[in-house]
Amino acid sequence: MAQEREDKFKTHRLIQLDKWIRSGAYPSLEKMMHEYGVSRRTILRDMEFLRDRYGAPLEYDKERKGYYYSDPTFVIQSVLLTEGDLFTISTVMPLLEQYRNTPLEGSFRSIMSKVSELMPDTVSVDTSFLNKDIAFITEPLPKIDESVFFAIFRAVKGFETVTFGYRSSGGTEFKQRTFDCYRVLCKKGSWYVIGFDHDAADDASSKPGAIRVYALSRIRDVQFPGGRFSVPEGFDLNRHVDLSFGVWNNPEPPAEYELVFSPRLANYITEREWHRDQSVERNEDGSVTLKFRSNQKQMVFSWVLGFASAVRVVRPDSLRDEIKAEIARMARLYGTGGEEEG
């Protein structure tokens, strides 16, 4: 922390020194020491840094007993980054691949280009190892239409009711929806919007309309008919989704999950936070018990299946029964040459 604080002070000091020297005031070492409350050695290191790192044409005027630039047009950029800062930027850039399906990728790259333009040409960082030592594995993501992406954000910000065509994951046609966009959700690079669908049927009541979650990649032709809405005072995002696990809209109360993982996965399970409210306990036989509450039954089902025989469902009973039924279907599928029996 002390080194990080010193780097920030140094960056600020270099920017101020550059302005002072360019002003034609011919600051002396003594004046600079007094102004910034540092030692003579520190100021000399700063001057050396300006010369070597930024190519500053720094000279000393014996008559005026101060420093000046022999090239009056020289200026260092006001954004000074340490090698660690540049390393971070270089590392983060590949992460933008996960946003390739959205207009955010172009915006992020534009921002980074502007930062790059602010850097002096003489700054160099040894990042040659990045290409060979760091690899990023991204999710296969669907394409989101740029007009849809920005229209949904406009609707959320301005509380504007929209209409659009929506095709479900198993559908073949786009059905027209009238929708109040409450919040935008992003799960591992996939983007969704949660809100009130005027055209949906609410199974829990006889009132028209219901809360729904729609994937932005399946939306097309967003229109603004002119209506506005207010998010209901009692709306609770956590009642519909669980951002620790997924964005399935399940307004029913969350279930209590208890899973026991085999000893071979003990470290893998204990070193991660699977849910913000989880409890993890190592058992005497080396296994690990993971407990949490969630309303994401669909996501938990798929997640548990991914561990195959390395996990045992203790509760809820409904998940255990669903896992058993799925295993039976898989057994029939692979036991009959690829065709599931009726």
Indicate the multimeric state. single chain
Task: Estimate the strand proportion.
Answer: 15-25%
Please trace the helix and strand order, writing H or E for each element: HHHEEHHHHEEEEEHEHEEHEH
Main β-sheet, in a few words?
5 strands, antiparallel
> Which class best fits the helix and strand makeup?
alpha+beta
N-end to C-end Cα span:
65 Å
What strand line-up does the widest sheet have?
6-5-4-3-7
Unreliable residue runs: 120-131
Bulk shape: elongated
Mean pLDDT across all residues, rounded? 83
The value of Rg in angstroms is: 30 Å
Question: What's the total count of β strands?
Answer: 11
* Residues in helix, %: 25-40%
Contiguous helical run count:
11
Tell me what you see in this structure.
The chain is α+β, with helices and mostly antiparallel strands and 342 residues long. Helices cover 36% and strands 22% of the residues. It is built from eleven helices and eleven strands. The strands form three sheets. A five-stranded antiparallel sheet has the order 6-5-4-3-7, covered by helices on one side. Strands 9-10-8-11 form a four-stranded antiparallel sheet. Helix 2 packs across helix 3. The protein is elongated, with a radius of gyration of 30 Å. The N and C termini lie far apart (65 Å).
